[in-house]
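User: Hey, my collaborator sent me this sequence without any context and asked if I could get a structure. I don't really work with proteins. Can you help?
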Amino acid sequence: MSCAGAFPEQIVTQIWDSWLKKAYDIETVPEGKKAGLADLTAELFEPFIGQTITFERPAANGGTPLEPARMQLLEVKRGPKSPALRREPFSLFLVMKDQPPLGTGLHRLTHLECEAADLLVTRVTAPKYEAADPMGMFYEVVFG
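Assistant: No problem. I've predicted the 3D structure and written it out in structure-token form, which is a compact way to encode the shape of the chain:
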């Protein structure tokens, strides 16, 4: 006996729809609550293009934390959509000037719109931006 035969079609459909929503949709963040790492989307960052985003640098060898890194958000690049992914992949392109470069390891995003999150911030080459800003150090943060 199949499960579909044991339950009315409407109930099976409701269960399936509920599972799909939980498996693939990202719910909106309730008002007054900051977005967590799983809630971060391209839409959340797009209004901040051109603004400064701050990352805390990890302390070297457990010592005193270093000065935070302040970077300008240049672009939010969207990746290909897939129903198999919980969220649309995207990446942030940032530039940092007049500061020491980021070291290795995770850097904590500290932003008013979201909870603090440790992210891998990778230095990249960005010919599109380097011509206009040869002194900038360019970084990317990828969200899968």
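In plain terms: Residues 9-24 form the longest helix (16 residues). You can pass these tokens on to your collaborator as they are.
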